[in-house]
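Researcher: Quick sanity check before group meeting.
Model: Go ahead. Protein one:
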Amino acid sequence: MIDTSRRLISTVAAMLFVVTLTGAGGPTEVVTEPPADAPAAASTDDPTEVGWRLLASLNYRTGEPSEELAALSGKLVKIPGFTVPLEDWASSATEFLLVPYVGACIHTPPPPPNQLVYIEMDEGKRAKLDGWNPVWVEGVLTIEMTESVYGYVGFTLSGQQVYPYES
C-alpha cells in the first residue's frame, strides 16, 4: 500500500513538473502546423460533429456499431476531446490518441475501446499536443479495432485539422 502511494505521488509530481515546463493551462492556440505549401482555400464539405455518446454505441466486444455510427464510417467528421501522446512527453506528433476527458490513459485502466480514437495526421501535418485543453479533430472516420500502447482502440481518424475547442 505504501509503495503504491509513493508511486502515485511520484507520478503526480512528474505530471505537475511537465505541466509547469510546458505551460499547460495557458491560453489556447492553433495546434496544427500545416505544411508551408498547403492551399489556403477551405473545403466546401462541412464535417459532421460526432460526440462521445455516439462513439460509445460501438459494441467493442462484437465490433458492431449502431446504425447511426455505421453511417459515419468513411465520412468527414469532427470530434472534441483531449490529446494523449503515444510517445512519452511528446509536444507534437503525427500519431496520437483522442480521449473524452483530461487524464485518460495516464492511469490504469484506460477507457474502453469505444472511448478511444487513434489519430494519424495526413501526410505533412503535425498536431501540437496539449492534453490539458480540449481540441476539435477533423478527419475521415474508420471504425476498426487498433492496438496501441494503451490497449485496443475502436476508431481510427485520418487527421486533417486539430484546433482549439470552442462550443
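Researcher: Fine. The other one?
Model: Protein two, sequence then structure:
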Amino acid sequence: MTRGSLGTAPESADPRQTTRMTVNGETVEREVSVRMLLSDFLRHELGLTGTHVGCEHGVCGACTVMIDGRAGRSCLTFAVQADGADIRTIESVAGEDGSLHPLQEAFRDCHALQCGYCTPGMIMNILSHMEAGENLDMSDQEIRELLSGNLCRCTGYANIVKAVRQVADQSNRISP
C-alpha cells in the first residue's frame, strides 16, 4: 500500500479475550482486544451510541454508565474488566413503550439540556444514586456536588439542578 492510499487497517496484534456481561438486561459475549475500552465495546460492538465519549480521561462524565448498579466511567474501564458485570446504559432508562423515565421528563420539562452531549452521563450518574435508595440531601449545594463529576459546557447547571429537584420532590425517598 502506498502512502496516502486507503485500505483496510491491519488486524491488531493485541491479545484477545472473551468477555461476557449483561448489558441492559441482555447477556452478550464477544471476543475483544484486552485493550478495548468498555465505551468502545458498547458503542462499536453493541451499537449503543447513547454512551458518549468526551475527554477519554474520566474527567467529563459523558461516558458514565452503571456497572453493577453504580455509576462508572466506561472510558476508564476495559471491556474485559466488565466480564460478569451488569451494565446499564442510557438506552435502558426509557420504558419499553418508549415513555420517558421521570428523570428524562424532568430534564425535558426544566430545559436542563442544550446540546445534550452530557445528558446521558448525567442521567446515569443521578439515576445510580436514586436507584441505590440513598437518602440524599437535595439542597442546591448537594445536588451540585452530586453532579460535580459530570461536566456541561452549555447550561450553567441551574436547570439541571432544577430537574434533579423536581424528580426528588416527586419521589419520597429523598429528603429535601
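Researcher: One line on it for the slide.
Model: The chain is about 30% helix and 15% strand.
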